[in-house]
Amino acid sequence: MDRVANRLSALGSTAALELRGVTRMFGALAALTDVTITVRPGERRAVLGSNGAGKTTLFNCVTGDFLPTSGTIRFFGEDITGFPPYERIRRGLRRTYQISALFLGLSVRDNVYLACRGVSRSRFSMLRPRANDALMQATERLIEAVHLTAVRDQLVSELAHGQQRQLEIALALAGAPRFILFDEPAAGLSPTERRELVEILTSLIIEHDMDVALRVVESVTMMHNGRIFKEGAPQEIESDPEVQELYLGGGHE
Questions:
Q1: Read out DSSP for the chain?
Q2: pLDDT per position as a tens digit, 87-130
Q3: What is the pTM of this model?
């Protein structure tokens, strides 16, 4: 019994995502310098900062689009520092991108189904899915989760920008991922669309819209010039004089 209890305790203490001393160089330019971050399982964290702060490079290192020049990245205790993107996806790591990557000529339902099929064991099967197919059922659940049921048969090209962002989240959720990184999910959204988005978002978020980010997360990492500048709870970051001066012009209410 003690052995089982110790194992469960160890699992509970494992970070979902752990970066230690991550640096990324592009020639002589340091895009990231000695970045250390720990995100707990279930924790919602925002990574904030102005353009050029290193946020997207950080995401690219986590997902394997870029490999860090030095440092380590662990995902639920496993060292994935040198893994290619597809191996990270297989382990349950997902992300969205600033620029949409959707099949505009297909319906919402077809986009979500292909995402579910792509991460399933039957992805190479040539059989046509039936109505009661498990992947079709998963597709319908994801469409409902991101509030797109009313437009599930529409072509993606006909959707509003906010609906396309919601669809991207559905694709990221395919296959029940263990961790999702959202890259500026509120970019270009109207106030109404942002409120809809707040109800959906979880996990690790890059976001320029402070009002969105601070409403949906439990902790905030502020970046500046490729380094971690501040970390803390949303209310601490929002009221911090240095944050207000550097990022908010000293006048954020």
A1: -HHHHHHHHHHHHS-SEEEEEEEEEETTEEEEEEEEEEE-TT--EEEE--TTSSHHHHHHHHHTSS--SEEEEEETTEE-TT--HHHHHHTTEEE--SS----TTSBHHHHHHHHHHHTSTTTT--SPPPTT-HHHHHHHHHHHHTT-GGGTTSBGGGS-HHHHHHHHHHHHHTT--SEEEEESTTTT--HHHHHHHHTT--SEEE-S-HHHHHHH-SEEEEEETTEEEEEE-HHHHHH-HHHHHHHSTT---
A2: 999 899 998 887 677 999 999 999 999 998 887 766 556 566 66
A3: 0.77
